[in-house]
């Protein structure tokens, strides 16, 4: 049985490392993502965010910190754990927290966000993280019963422009208007970005690309050298 309050309080002020690789990349193997997660924990990560059942299962076996699991289906519209069945599978694979699309867009299985969250809570003891794109998404997710909210989709839906770094304006809106713990995620590329997000009121900070995606990190350097 998950002690939800202890789990959430244990993440406060910490770094969550997102260990994901894109399709077709050489690092897209569960064993590699598991080792990436283990390295992140050694570095001080308080939790891991991971995608795909095989990755989640192996990471669950090899790290002791909580895991935020998700299942990406496609790349457009509602693709982050888009249905209830995807969410339940992620939890069965070992995630203590399941991240779902928390926007107000129509879901593939026809369920509302509220129906999805209620079913997850009825059938499991996992927490639900709503990945949102704007304040209205977040408020709707809170009313629907989400346990946590993350700014993951800021700039990736049509409701807000995509900022160069983290969307600090949205983060300020979320922390000012929600009772739920707010996780900052999206384009957090430096330790300074992470610190600013925490100072803006984020419960915890999620960083992926800047830590676990060497192709992009390399491109940042090569682009700087060829300007």
UniProtKB/TrEMBL annotation:
Family listed: Belongs to the NanE family.
- CDD domains the UniProt entry points to: NanE
State its role. Converts N-acetylmannosamine-6-phosphate (ManNAc-6-P) to N-acetylglucosamine-6-phosphate (GlcNAc-6-P).
Q: Which InterPro entries does the record cross-reference, listed alphabetically?
A: Aldolase_TIM (IPR013785), NanE (IPR007260), RibuloseP-bd_barrel (IPR011060)
Q: What class of enzyme is it?
A: isomerase
A GO term, aspect molecular function: N-acylglucosamine-6-phosphate 2-epimerase activity
A Pfam family of this chain: NanE
Which keywords describe this protein according to UniProt? Carbohydrate metabolism, Isomerase
Question: Can you state which reaction this protein catalyses?
Answer: an N-acyl-D-glucosamine 6-phosphate = an N-acyl-D-mannosamine 6-phosphate
Source species of the chain? Microlunatus elymi
> What pathway is this protein a component of?
Amino-sugar metabolism; N-acetylneuraminate degradation; D-fructose 6-phosphate from N-acetylneuraminate: step 3/5
**Can you cite a GO biological process for this protein?**
N-acetylmannosamine catabolic process
Enzyme Commission number(s) of this protein = 5.1.3.9
Cellular component (GO) terms are: cytosol
- Name assigned to this protein: Putative N-acetylmannosamine-6-phosphate 2-epimerase
